[in-house]
Amino acid sequence: MKTAIVFLADGMEECEALVTVDMLRRAGINVITASIMKRHEVTSSHNITVIADALAEDVDYSAADAVILPGGMPGTTNLNNCELVKQQCVSFAAGRYVAAICAAPMVLGGLGLLKGRKATCYPGFDKYLEGAEYTGESAVTDGNIITGKGMGAAIPFSMAIITALIDAETAADIAASVMYE
């Protein structure tokens, strides 16, 4: 079974986090939500409290296939200020999957992980995608890096992750099951 870790931070865009978690779990992917806040309770940018499965510092990253960064503000800033998140992104980029949506691709850009790659993000944050070719598409997969544009692209972003971790047929089946056309 494939495993993905979704980092949760105060100020995250809850739909980008939870739609992704939901879609991946529907596909049979083991998803671990990991709080970077030193507590299980994480409050979103729209004041919704979510209980993470684990604290990020307690997660075993060795068997995971992907790390995922939801966007939102100041959630992305919190992710960008977390050394553990940045370390794991660099580690995973060496051969596993790294995915980020909305403002969160700026974390990858700041780490140099987007150089020479196609990527997307929330409009206006493209200036932080250092060395990337900004596409403006809903979701972009370039090698083992997956980026999404924003909340409205949470389903295509999730389908791109499912395609990468499992296959396109499973992603299409999940999309159809939720009436996404």
How would you characterize the overall build of this protein?
With 181 residues, the chain is an alpha/beta fold. It is built from six helices and eleven strands. The strands form three sheets. Strands 5-2-1-6-7-11-10 form a seven-stranded mixed sheet. It is globular. The model has no long low-confidence stretch (mean pLDDT 98).
Summarize the structure.
By secondary structure, the chain is α/β, with parallel strands linked by helices. It has helices spanning 14-26, 75-80, 83-93, 105-110, 154-165, 168-177, and strands spanning 3-8, 30-35, 41-43, 49-51, 54-55, 66-69, 97-101, 118-119, 133-134, 139-142, 145-148. Strand 10 (139-142) and strand 11 (145-148) form a beta hairpin.
SSE layout and pairings?
Elements: E1 3-8, H1 14-26, E2 30-35, E3 41-43, E4 49-51, E5 54-55, E6 66-69, H2 75-80, H3 83-93, E7 97-101, H4 105-110, E8 118-119, E9 133-134, E10 139-142, E11 145-148, H5 154-165, H6 168-177
Parallel strand pairs: 1-2, 1-6, 2-5, 6-7, 7-11, 8-9
Antiparallel strand pairs: 3-4, 10-11
Radius of gyration: 14 Å
Strand arrangement, largest sheet?
5-2-1-6-7-11-10
Beta strand %: 15-25%
Distance from first to last alpha carbon: 27 Å
Question: Which sequence of SSEs, written as H and E, runs from N to C?
Answer: EHEEEEEHHEHEEEEHH
What do the pLDDT scores average to? 98
Helix content: 25-40%
Number of helical segments? 6
State the major sheet. Answer: 7 strands, mixed
What's the number of extended β-strand segments?
11
The coarse overall form would be: globular
* Low-pLDDT residue spans: none
Structural class: alpha/beta
